[in-house]
Amino acid sequence: TQLLEQSPQFLSIQEGENLTVYCNSSSVFSSLQWYRQEPGEGPVLLVTVVTGGEVKKLKRLTFQFGDARKDSSLHITAAQPGDTGLYLCAGFTTSGTYKYIFGTGTRLKVLA
Amino acid sequence: NAGVTQTPKFRVLKTGQSMTLLCAQDMNHEYMYWYRQDPGMGLRLIHYSVGEGTTAKGEVPDGYNVSRLKKQNFLLGLESAAPSQTSVYFCASSYALRTEAFFGQGTRLTVV
Fold it and tell me: pLDDT for B50-81, tens place per residue?
């Protein structure tokens, strides 16, 4: 059972456009992380959000954690070809056993 | 900085063959993980270790074994490879349970 669903699965946009990627779950997470993965490489951490409602900015990327800590979003302003990659959300569930779950991923392609 | 190093990077196996994937980290991290990545599935945890000499099952452990004889190394074994184990395998490590995970570059395994 996939606990973290990302949408859209694929996104192809022109340079300069804005976009939002969503990460949704029916479970509560104690924290959520966003990674970017480039072809032939492992995921690299972009940000961690911990508090419900928290907003973090990383240059043109804005990350938000839902108030109920069940969802998160990644917004990119004025996308650039360098933003191309696979974006993954991941989080720790609040259940008693260790469970770190990755989302299904959003593959972004930004065309010059 | 080496970080997390995986060997080999590519491998083709015949059904029924065995092999071992090696992961080495030079960051003195206690926690190490093995994931597999399949299209549309995100990353799924196979096994993990919370310290030297310890291992635990993750989300998809069947068909795999692991060992953590030294703190810096985490080995993933396939005793009898099956086509369903065709995937990209990633090793990761972290300082503590809920801190940033650092990933290796991955091993692309094909079982024919």
Answer: 999 999 998 899 999 999 999 999 999 999 99
Sorted by sequence, the CB contacts under 8 Å of residue A71 that are 6+ apart come out as: A22, A23, A24, A25, A65
Whether B43 and chain A come into contact, CB under 8 Å, resolves to: yes
Give the number of residues written for chain A: 112
Distance CA B5, CA A78 (A): 34
Q: Is A10 on the interface with B (CB under 8 A)?
A: no
Write the Ramachandran bin of A55: left for phi over 0, alpha for psi from -120 to 50, otherwise beta. Answer: beta
Q: Does B97 touch chain A (CB under 8 A)?
A: yes
- Whether B18 has a pLDDT exceeding 90, the answer reads yes
Q: pLDDT digits over A8-57, tens only? A: 999 999 999 999 999 999 888 888 999 999 988 999 999 999 999 999 99
> What are the percentages of helix, strand and coil residues in chain A, rounded to 5?
5, 55, 40
Of B43, B98, B103, the CB nearest to A31: B98
DSSP B41: T
Mutate to test the interface with B, among A1, A30, A102, A106 (most CBs of B within 10 A): A102
